[in-house]
Specification:
The chain has 118 residues and is α/β, with parallel strands linked by helices. Helix content is 23%, strand content 25%.
Length: 118
């Protein structure tokens, strides 16, 4: 596995809408996940846009466990599916997972809950 350093500079967006917390982790990879895990600022989220197309790295499982999302989406395709280890980590966290290879994922929040349509 070769890590692209420029992906670790990707923008990460944490969004709070009322009681709902969402984390859009872009294409971050192992180094950035490690920084976030050790920053003390990473908490539980209702939604996670899984980073790096669901490809696994040294910190993927710990990152998912720390975020412990209720819902997650992964940008992927049949040609480029997410790694099984990433899906396993999400299952362990009790996360409902949506894959873009199955169609667009639309999130709507009223500040109390998230509604997902695919």
């Amino acid at each position: 596995y070769i890590q692209r350093q420029d992906e670790n500079a990707s923008i990460i967006v944490s969004l709070t809408h009322g009681d709902v917390k969402m984390l859009f982790a872009s294409s971050i990879q192992s180094e950035r996940m490690y920084e976030m895990l050790n920053s003390g600022e990473l908490g539980k989220y209702d939604y996670l846009k899984v980073p790096n197309f669901g490809l696994v790295n040294n910190n993927t499982a710990a990152f998912i466990a720390a975020v412990s999302p209720k819902i997650a989406s992964i940008s992927c395709s049949d040609k480029n599916p997410p790694d099984q280890q990433t899906l396993d980590a999400l299952q362990t966290a009790g996360t409902t997972v949506y894959l873009t290879k199955n169609g667009n994922v639309k999130l709507t929040s009223d500040g109390k809950a998230i509604e997902v349509k695919q």
